[in-house]
Amino acid sequence: MTNIATTRSLVIEREMPHPPEKIWRALTEGRLIEQWLMTNDFQPIVGHRFSFRATPVPGWNGVIDSEVLVVEPNSRLSYGWTTMGLETVVTWTLTRNAGGTILRMEQSGFPSEEGANYKGAKYGWTSFIGKLENVVGGLQ
Description:
Layout: E1 8-16, H1 20-28, H2 30-36, E2 39-40, E3 49-53, E4 63-72, E5 76-83, E6 86-97, E7 100-110, H3 116-137
Antiparallel strand pairs: 1-7, 2-3, 3-4, 4-5, 5-6, 6-7
């Protein structure tokens, strides 16, 4: 894996008016993940290898290979994210507050903030997190 000390991270934080338990469901239940991110065979079990799948486009086969690294229910989830030869790590942190939950997503391991991978991730995660919030808002 890339030396994290010499890489860059993308961080997006958002306050959501929902308890961590609701957000956790959307982050860890495959059918819900599919609604805001991609089709998948995710299971919240450390060491589980899985894939996210999207429609292929020129230069990308639509597959992200992953492995669950950390599962701390309703608090922290982390998985590897490997696509197009770049290995990064996505970490979700949920912190309860008076208004609901602070959601923090960090994707670490980018070689720079100037590259297409970083810029694409920033655009993609901003959209995905908006969709995540909509999915969470629809949960009972």
